[in-house]
Amino acid sequence: MQEQEYFGYAGRILYIDLSREKVEEKTLCIEDIEMFVGGIGLATKILVEEIPDPRIDPYSPENILIFMTGALTGTPVYGASRYVVAAKSPLTGAWGEAHVAGYWGTELKKAGYDGIVIKGKASSPVYIYINDRNVELRDASKLWGLDVFTVDEAIKNELNDNSVRIASIGPAGENLVRYAVIASDIQPNGPRIGGRTGMGAVMGSKNLKAIAVKGSGRIKIKDPARLSSILSRLLPLIMSSPTAQILAAYGTAGEVEEFYEYGDMPIKNFTLGIFEEYKNITGQSFREKGIVVDVYGCWACPVKCWKVVEVEGRRIRAPEYETIASLGSLLMIGDPYYLAKVNYLCCKYGLDTISTGVTIAWAMECFERGIISTADTGGIPLTWGNKDAVLKIVEMIAKREAFGNILAEGCKRASEIIGKGSIDYCAHVKGVEMPMHDPRAFKGMGLQYATSNRGADHLYGLFFRIEQGQRVHDLKIYERVDRFSYKGKGWMVATMELWSEIQESMGICKFVDIPPAHVAGLYTYATSIKRTVPELMKIAKRIFTLKRLFNIACGITRVDDTLPRRFLKEPLNEGGAKGEVVELEPMLKEYYEFMGWNDNGVPKREVLEELGLLKYVEKLRIKI
Amino acid sequence: MSELIFGFDEEQIKKDICKVMRNLFERGLVSALGGNVSARVPGAKEFWITPSGIFKGELTPDDLIKLDFDGNIVEGIGRPSIEWPLHAAIYRVRADVNAVVHAHNPFTLGLALAGVGLKPITVEAVMVLRKVEVVPFAFPGTDQLAKLVSEKASTGARAIILQNHGIVAMGANLYEAEAIAETLEEVAIAQFVALALGKEPPVIPERDVELYYKLYRLEK
């Protein structure tokens, strides 16, 4: 029988059972990529089908940790650098996923694999070394406890290869901090981070310290001439967008000023609308002060939003907007030098900066309100603006020391431990700490946070872009929308969430804004599988709905599709979003209708039938 | 072998679209990212259109997309011009139109922005343009713009100025549509030069205009 030839894809998935120390290759099934494309789509299918029971403890060896590249990852398509990590999340107790850019995904594909499915738990710490389809499980006992920078150096030294690409956890992942990250492309200029929903903790629970990859293969393209021709002529369009220009000049930090003026950038745990010190922590300020020292870029990226700072003699990735806000304005700190340092610490230990910042903000508000005191915090005064306290607490969280052990649980669980009504100050959805876009400034973002499968999520939909005035013709979003209105946003948010499923399945970056119909065309030229936007959107709905089914199996209901009370009832008294609250219910109703879900947020039978998902109802043991 | 319908070779239409686009680009009437051209086999309910977002100076037939009037892709790969609703709307109401050019004629647009109407200052202005309409600003690519254009097109206009945006030229074939777009600009430039030199340009006398219309049996 003739072997299937793959274009764009490597054509193989690596299965590793750490309990049995068993390594196996499986051929990529064409039917699977027709139904799920790749990246997060494929990871969703595999996780749902192969997890023994969605109700398991996320730290159980039965949890499955999946690394999956996108269909276009490693091709010359602009921004096609990404891979995803998926597992049952220890933060949400339901669906978990994180996305990572850089070079690691491309390297994995060049090594011969579209993805890695990791099962079981190693009896002692290990790391995986993949060198062009030669796969080894290696002892990581001496690496356990090392921070991500040191482990990067140690593995490169051990392999005597400075070009190997490494994805690793830090002490936070080992210590099962529920929002620990996976870091890859660590040095030079990194790391890139798979930050959200605690995928680093799942990796730690498996005694897996790192995955080192070296690939020398070639990713085949079906029609390279056409692909190249389209790409070269698309460049002026991509680079002419105002967002691309800001990102190219200053990175995401370049948007601080605009977000602040919208009243979008959270201040003092989402309670204030004015913070004059924001001017010190803009991307422009980082550059003017000489803190940003260089520009780098991911695989195939023309935008190069990746900026570099120097901390403790290392060149590392500069703080992004989300970090500047979550560990800066949210805590009433406007010091760029501190932000470079605290960002470095989070990278070093492997902590998600959003969850870290929001959890500390919750603790600071509890401290201010007298719910906790220095008796709880080990003598640390958790006052607003206290940089030294934050730097100390970050280390304590990563090491699960004293009060850090409570904060390592994430703000929702921490508030359950502390009690005394402290949940009212916890900015989370489904247990995931809220990103740095206040939904009172962009109402559709409120719906996006409430409905995203992985909890409060700014990237699945990126709806604040639409509410800033971006239109997406290919998805029928023709008109500019009012950021404060809620009418007619249900279908739009759903549409943008669905398109994000395609971006994460293709492995393309949302900051390199290729219009959807061009993505369909580029995919067709790269893989020979002809796709149009309507076809891709049906696949997107299949992926999104399957995750929803997984979440339902994990106990998620309509009640969880909500926002903290603060955003529904408490307007800000000043700033760009003064007087606004989120009118969630009418948007949610419209959203459910568009998605084909019943009033309880459960997909209707006919929708599941149309998407080919009915068989999963039985597998997941859920009622529809 | 390409399809032949009533003597119209679709492959030739695609080549001609690219050629017209290149001509317009070289004349500065479309820019690297702005402007689009479509054409159809006479009477067809589908049309070929240039892609969106791709540098306009070097299009090839492989770049073109065939759409039905609802915007569904019939043939081709990638992204059709976002102005497809405007093109489809014209084909729906104008059986005599088989090619549509949407360009960004700078002088034509400049005069329109200044509130200066085009006048019959040359024979071509009379013969080629005949009827020029203006529509107010609407966002590019929207159904609203398509509706405004469709209303004016249905009155028999051969060219429409889109305020704050560009122009639309309609012809029985691609070369006529191109000629209309180019004539618009030629007339606008001449009129602008006269105005810039402080002179109100003289127009062709009304009786001569009438005579041309009679001679060539043109409708006003």
Describe this structure in words.
The complex is a heterodimer of chains A (624) and B (220). With 624 residues, chain A is of the alpha+beta class. Chain A contains 26 helices and 17 strands. Chain A has 3 domains: 12-214, Aldehyde Ferredoxin Oxidoreductase,  A, domain 1 (4-Layer Sandwich), CATH 3.60.9.10; 242-426, Aldehyde Ferredoxin Oxidoreductase Protein, subunit A, domain 2 (Orthogonal Bundle), CATH 1.10.569.10; 443-512 and 532-620, Aldehyde Ferredoxin Oxidoreductase Protein, subunit A, domain 3. In chain A, strand 16 (428-429) and strand 17 (432-433) form a beta hairpin. In chain A, helix 2 runs parallel beside helix 22, helix 18 crosses helix 20 (489-506) and helix 20 (489-506) packs across helix 24 (584-595). By secondary structure, chain B is of the alpha+beta class. Chain B has a single domain, classed as 3-Layer(aba) Sandwich (L-fuculose-1-phosphate Aldolase), CATH 3.40.225. In chain B, helix 1 (10-26) packs parallel to helix 6, helix 3 (106-113) packs across helix 6 (174-196) and helix 4 (123-129) packs antiparallel against helix 6. The N and C termini of chain B lie far apart (42 Å). The relative contact order of chain B is 0.15. Chain A binds chain B through residues 226, 229-230, 232-234, 236-237, 240, 471, 473-474, 478-480, 515-518, 520-522, 524-525, 530, 532, and chain B through 32-33, 52-55, 58, 60, 62-63, 73, 77-80, 82, 139, 141-143.
